[in-house]
Amino acid sequence: MRLTEAGFDLMFLDGSNHTREQQQRGADHPHVSTVINDLANRLVHKGERKPYDEVVGVDRYFMERMTDMGFMFEETLNNGLIVPKQGKIVPPEEAINQAFKARMTVRRQKTEALEVQKELLVEGFYMNPDARNLGRDRGEEYKATWKSMKKMLTFLKDFIEWYWQIGAYCRGLHVVTYDLFVYWVNGDYQKTGYRPVTKVYTLEYEPDEINQIWTMLKKHRDFMLSQGLLK
Q1: pLDDT at residue 99 tops 50
Q2: Domain range spanning residue 40?
């Protein structure tokens, strides 16, 4: 997989809420994220993470707040974005606030042939890709994280779940290239002064690489089924 960074930052403005269609799921058709999270906890983050249902108190509060921020970023960017003009930056806090007040002033769909995805069922997995750029024949994924931007240097360790997830989405959308929009809540924790930064990265997968990821996820799904871990 080849990962490259775009040479500019993006700041987003407001947008209306966007609710993606959810389908009824069964144990034999888990959401791909369920399998990815369990696989990562077993192979990469051994003993570092508790299952979501076991996180309580303050830890549960902050996990939910971080999850909220991630969903807000996805929904905001799904509805459009604005590239800063004349060096003027709109604070992300203001942008997210405006997202709940008014529709986007500029929609991404006006500048790109963007198709916002509904929940898909692909070969026994449910998945929720954010969007497909029909004009550029690639997918688009929107992420928000409190990790440092510097961890992109160790992408296959610190963001292994994103790598697997986007690889699975490539399978679902029949593409090999993805643009990854990342909202770094605290930037790099140094030069950015803990201020948020939004950057875009392009991930280019080899077809064999996508097939290997898919085979791995299917095997782990079958393992989870055999252990009664999917309900």
Answers
A1: no
A2: 2-226
pLDDT at 212 over 90: yes
Cα(231)–Cα(229) distance, integer angstroms: 6
Residue 108 lies in a domain: yes
- Measured in Å, how far apart are the chain's first and last C-alpha atoms? 33
The CA radius of gyration of the chain, in Å to the nearest whole number, is 18
Predicted TM-score (pTM) of this structure: 0.67
